[in-house]
Amino acid sequence: MPAHIELREITHAYQTDAGPLPVLDNLNIKMAEGSFTAVVGPSGCGKSTLTRLIAGLMRPDEGQVWLGGKMVTSPRPTVGMAFQNPVLLEWRTILRNVMLPLEIVGQRMSRSDQEARARELLSLVGLEGFEDKRPSELSGGMRQRASLCRALVHRPEVLILDEPFGALDAFTREDLWQTMARLRHEEKFTAVLITHDLRESVFLADNIVVLSGRPATSQYVLANTLPADRTLDDLYAQPATEMLAILRHQIQVAQGRAPAEPQEAAQ
Amino acid sequence: MTSLRKFAAPVIAILLFLAGWEWLVWVNGWPTYKMAAPSDLWPAFWKFRWLFLEYGWQTLWRTVAGLALAIVFGVAVGMVMGFSRTVRDGLYPLLVGFNAIPKATVVPILALMFVGQHDMNTILIAFMISFFPIAVSVSIGLSTLEPEYRDILRSLGASQVTVFWKIALPKTLPEFFGALKVSVTLAFIGTNLMEIISPHGRGLGALFDSGKISSDYPLMFAVLIALALLGIVLYYIVVALEKTFAGWAERAPG
């Protein structure tokens, strides 16, 4: 199957006062259309740089990002983004926040269609009845739900999630995972999820890429063997526990805390 | 109930203040050249009522003109400084130095530079004294904008101008209005500075000066009260504007 998103031999360094700081080193990742890829790795290994590269917000020093057979050289309206900080605009209602991307890329949609689309998404994530509230009136989890709606309102082909659930408490986070799974069921997109939470990656993703320490390269790729209709309970039984053990070991290797030789459990 | 309290509380505070003032002068038996009492001011207001209206209007429009200039210039400088680190680093010492100069020393310089242009000189002083808070607040508001705010629109291919109008500008409005509340009283001080110092001036400041020359102490106090009233009016106009354009920044009580 042709890759929908492909990162080819990406090498990148930031220019700092102390000289160049390499963050990515010959990174190669392929993502199939409609797939959900999680990227995990130690802190500061360049995961967020990756999202900005895929979004076209910056260009790598070397290598290319390919999206649907075209090389990414600038931002494109077929991308939706959500961050750890929901960055909702306080002076707009929730509905008008969700409609924001359509003001940039939705010119062909009528105003009533735009509104209907935003309302449809809001009810899908359980925010029906909150359309006219201000962001400050919502809880952190609800704000993040609204932020997901905003990322999807213009039906992007690619959804980029940069630790969107990282600042939420454990129970709210699990709620949001289920919301995300429901969105994936209803909407069509290829998703890239940056996360520190291994359970989250196993619950949501088809493939989990472990990045090495800085400068990061793709150290390990795990294909998720859980069924598509997985539940939260599945995370606490085989084969999820085994996958979590492998991922944990790989993170420790990336952090330089464990030797790289394959564990008995890893294939 | 809340609206009654909002209206009654300041009125009662002002009345108490006037009563205390009257009492203080009465109990000490001060003559008007030492301290005029509120009851001495009414005759002064009445005697010069047309001058108060005319000069009050002159002071008001010059202040508003100076402030308008300060807003345009301050926002422009703030925008450039907010978007460019180099410009910010370059301009800050210059701006701080300029702001540190007492504007009373600039008055004679301006008066010499533009001899006889009393309106323009007054507006210029009001402008010079009041643009600094606006420039600083706008530049801080823009430069502290979290990159994610930019990215949600930039990732869709939106231009910098769109990001500015849809996100950066509205997000900076609360800081802007905070600075404007400071600037409005500063501009007022600037206007009066010019009116008082420059010879043959006009406006309430000049009326104060003529009260001083003719030893009309109640008139001097009456001018001070008139200035305070104008200052309050201008301030609350800014507050009303803030409520309209940046009311979202105020959290609902409770």
From TrEMBL, chain A:
Origin: domain of life: Bacteria
Membership in a protein family: Belongs to the ABC transporter superfamily.
Keywords of this entry: ATP-binding, Nucleotide-binding, Transport
Protein name: Nitrate/sulfonate/bicarbonate ABC transporter ATP-binding protein
Stretches assigned to the ABC transporter domain: 5-238
The species this protein was found in: Meridianimarinicoccus roseus
UniProt keyword Transport, yes or no: yes
Record CDD domains: ABC_NrtD_SsuB_transporters
GO MF assignments: ATP binding; ATP hydrolysis activity
SUPFAM superfamilies in the cross-refs: P-loop containing nucleoside triphosphate hydrolases
From TrEMBL, chain B:
Naturally occurring in which organism (per UniProt): Meridianimarinicoccus roseus
Main location: membrane
Family statement drawn from the similarity comment of this UniProt entry: Belongs to the binding-protein-dependent transport system permease family.
GO BP: any one term: transmembrane transport
Record's subcellular location: Cell membrane
Name this polypeptide is given: ABC transporter permease
Alphabetical list of SUPFAM superfamilies matching this protein: MetI-like (SSF161098)
Record carries keyword Transport: yes
GO cellular component, one term: plasma membrane
Pfam family, one: BPD_transp_1
InterPro entries: MetI-like, MetI-like_sf
Domain ABC transmembrane type-1: 56-238
PANTHER family named among the record's database cross-references: ABC TRANSPORTER PERMEASE PROTEIN (PTHR30151:SF41), ALKANE SULFONATE ABC TRANSPORTER-RELATED, MEMBRANE SUBUNIT (PTHR30151)
Gene3D superfamilies: MetI-like (1.10.3720.10)
Coiled-coil annotated spans: none
UniProt keyword list: Cell membrane, Membrane, Transmembrane, Transmembrane helix, Transport
